[in-house]
Amino acid sequence: MGERTALGGWIVGALALVAVLGAAARVPAQAGDLVVRVRDSGGEIRAVDLETYVERSVAAEVYASWPAQALRAQAVVARTYVLHQRQVNGANAHDVESSVLSQRYRVGRVSERVRAATEATRGEYLAFGPAQTPILAAFHSSAGGRTAAAGEVWGLDLPYLRPVDSPDDAAPDFFWSYEIDVEDLRAALIEAGWPAGTGTEVRIVDRSPSGRARRAEVLGLDLSGRELRQVLGGRALRSALFDVRVDGAVVRFLGSGAGHGVGLCQWGTRELARRGRSYSEILAHYYPGTTLRRIGDPADVASGSRAR
Q1: Given pLDDT bands bounded at 50, 70 and 90, which one contains residue 2?
Q2: What is the pLDDT of residue 22?
Q3: In the chain, what are the domain boundaries?
Q4: pTM of the shown model
Q5: Burial bucket for residue 287 (CB in 10 Å: 0-12, 13-18, 19+)
Q6: Which pLDDT value is given to residue 78?
């Protein structure tokens, strides 16, 4: 659920944003006018209307039993993300993948609670800048208490993707651990195309402002935190927010959170909704400076939608 273990998909989307930041928003007059081209795991591309796509994505990303305001927030995020990707991939055969390379999407039964959240936010998306284009609505499962800036993860600074506190300590991955034998780690590095490291230490040498591993010494090699996650896999190192030590022949990781940590934290959203925050307030918290807009409506959706 929103683990974002496929790190490359978000990086491509973030870098592609540079090409569209200054462009006028290409959003249809009505939400029903828009079709999303989804490529499934088998490579087949299907055209789906926007709101059907949104409800299916929300159903695949979060639990239907979550508070209604959390479901609404996820619906706006799903819609914003696909509007952004539609602009980025306009010349391509498809707009999004059906997996975490984009955001999860599945065909099947959608609960009435998810459908109601989608309908309650029909056509709503987050915009930023003079042109009010749809933002890169990055999100993840669990931040480990504080989100990361886009610049920390992708090297691209976006003013609406900056660190904020996130009350996600109820997340199943808020704390996690992982162990691997030193020689198995060495083999994993070689398999991933790295040279055979001759060192014995594994340690963090630099951290980002949000505390995530920026650079690490790994058996004599210099890797970024993202590169180390790619070597071991996102299910092993669930985030870059971790400590590591070597005990004899075993490397032990102790970490917090799941996913890249940028943008909306799904488990933090659940808790904020549980505390009584509205979906527009939640979105303003995780995407500061953005405006909540509706397709075909020149005015803001709500006066409180812009973060202060």
Answers
A1: very low
A2: 37
A3: 7-170+260-300, 176-255
A4: 0.85
A5: buried
A6: 92
